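FAQ

Q: What does a record look like?
A: Structure on top, sequence underneath. For example:
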């Protein structure tokens, strides 16, 4: 099982399941008859990293937690636990852990650690109070979510790049789903007079002279896009101030097949160009 590819919800559910098993004997405290019993439970929790911390030191660490940090067990048992955490994350992580131990927080918290070889890893963790050797201790359950975090970062960078490209295009670019606008670039302000925020979620009919013509051009586009990837034509549109403008329009379906009428359309105002040709 590749845990790093699991969704956050699946990771949360997995940790919650472990906590439920560990806390089955009492609502807030975990009691075991011997250290051997506790180690056995932790050893079988093979899908998550586990540790026991008491008096500010690690008392037990399972193999997954060792893998996350890259440190050998003997070295880790002598280290101060907060020293693993990236300095700028330590205060927030301590606050979240304390809130969870007090029952004031129920969702896992995330923070970054520095591994033995200097790499930064993202960890998602829960903490619960237990009794260990007759005294209070902390049981931590953690997962390495570095790959998911990196995938999210790359997606954000890609979305930012796409947004920059769209905004650099002088034509108005509009994305449609079932004839409703789900994205638009800033050029819609220059072409139609509408701010992009005013158009998102609205019917594409807003930029045509009337409903009949909006339906007509929609029918033309969808009929042609059923058989070809793109289609280009010229058609009258309407500016926000009521002016009629003539636009050169190029539509492209999203995907190999036209599903749910998902298309992208570019609009270029050619009103003055046409007048100059007359």
């Amino acid at each position: 099982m590749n845990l790093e590819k699991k969704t956050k919800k699946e990771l949360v559910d997995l940790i919650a399941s472990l906590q439920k098993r560990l806390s089955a004997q009492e609502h807030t405290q975990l009691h075991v008859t011997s250290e051997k019993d506790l180690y056995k439970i932790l050893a079988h929790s093979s899908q998550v990293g586990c540790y026991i911390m008491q008096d500010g030191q690690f008392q037990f660490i399972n193999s997954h937690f060792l893998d996350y940090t890259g440190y050998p067990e003997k070295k880790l048992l002598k280290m101060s636990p907060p020293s693993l955490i990236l300095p700028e994350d330590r205060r927030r992580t301590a606050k979240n852990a304390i809130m969870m131990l007090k029952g004031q927080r129920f969702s896992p918290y995330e923070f970054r650690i520095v591994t033995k070889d200097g790499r930064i890893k993202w960890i998602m963790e829960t903490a619960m109070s237990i009794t260990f050797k007759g005294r209070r201790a902390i049981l931590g359950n953690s997962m390495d979510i570095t790959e998911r975090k990196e995938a999210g970062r790359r997606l954000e960078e890609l979305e930012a790049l796409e947004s920059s490209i769209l905004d650099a295009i002088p034509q108005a670019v509009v994305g449609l789903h079932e004839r409703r606008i789900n994205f638009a670039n800033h050029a819609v302000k220059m072409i139609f007079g509408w701010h992009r925020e005013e158009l998102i979620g609205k019917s594409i009919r807003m930029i045509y002279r009337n409903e009949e013509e909006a339906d007509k051009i929609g029918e033309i586009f969808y009929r042609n896009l059923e058989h070809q990837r793109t289609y280009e034509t010229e058609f009258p549109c309407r500016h926000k101030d009521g002016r009629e403008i003539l636009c050169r329009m190029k539509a492209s379906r999203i995907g190999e097949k036209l599903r749910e009428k998902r298309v992208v359309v570019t609009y270029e105002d050619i009103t003055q160009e046409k007048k100059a040709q007359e």
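Q: Is there anything notable about this one?
A: The domain at 3-150 is CATH 3.30.450.20 (Beta-Lactamase).
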